[in-house]
Amino acid sequence: MGIRTEELGKALQRLRFNAYVQAYNFGVVSGLVYGISRLMLGFGALSVGLADGMVVCSCLPVTVSMVMVLTKSANGDEAAAVFHAAFGNMIGIFLSPALIAMYLGVSGDVDLARVTTKLVLRVLVPLMAGQFLRCFVPPARNYVDGRSAFFKKVQEWLLVFIVYTVFCETFETGMDATVGQIFLMIALQGGILVLVMALAWSSLGVLFPGQPRLRAMGLFGCTHKTVAMGIPLINSMYSDIAPALVGLYTLPLLIWHPMQLLLGTAIAPRVAEWVDAREAASTTRGQERELVPLEADDSPPI
């Protein structure tokens, strides 16, 4: 509500920036994670379930709430954050299953049409229904807005319950991973997150110089992965054909998600200071260019 329509319209027109953020999030991150996970798998350092789970996590779209909150904290472009949160999750319904099938070679075992239908019913339909109520049913909007804290708690506890049931089923059927492999996966997820954030920050600086707010937003938009869509996707793809692996496929995502929150919260104030300093310097340079220096011959007489 705090973002003006013209700001959102301007965000939609940044085709080059939008394409880069989505390509980095879906393509660069997943390609890098796939290579590292296959290397660890080749050395026998990770189980197949954990290695594949890392790939599944890397194929997911950007978060919704978290990327907008951290972008705002870092003085980034909030309109761009809103666009990418919505657009990334919309295309992720179709793109994420296809990427997972491409990397893991499960297209013969997983019916992508069935998975997409499940995701549409579990993710897109509730989203569209909520937006319809918010836009066209003011009493419903006012009711939810007045109890936002309650509904947020309900959402969090429902997500916890889903994760709990997933791991209950995993432990009941047996988990094909050692404690050492789990700790290695945690270390790899943390290291990869730092690496992709550093690469995103550097590449955004080269490709979009002089746009600090876009760079701040891109830092999070290029690297965040959503748990809200990730768990329904994993369940839709694997609950029928490999229920024992659902927990292992979910675990890397449950590691990445809090790590991106902790790291983002830690660096957001510093990024905000950098954005403010860059914009202040840009304003100063602009004012200096507007001043027309007096020529020597035009100097006032003494």
TrEMBL record:
Transmembrane stretches, start-end: 21-41, 53-70, 82-104, 119-137, 157-175, 181-208
- Which InterPro entries does the record match to this protein? Na+/solute_symporter_sf (IPR038770), Put_Na-Bile_cotransptr (IPR016833)
Q: Which Gene3D superfamilies match?
A: 1.20.1530.20
The entry's keywords = Membrane, Transmembrane, Transmembrane helix
Q: Which domain of life is it from?
A: Eukaryota
Any Pfam family matching the protein: SBF_like
This protein is called what?
Transporter
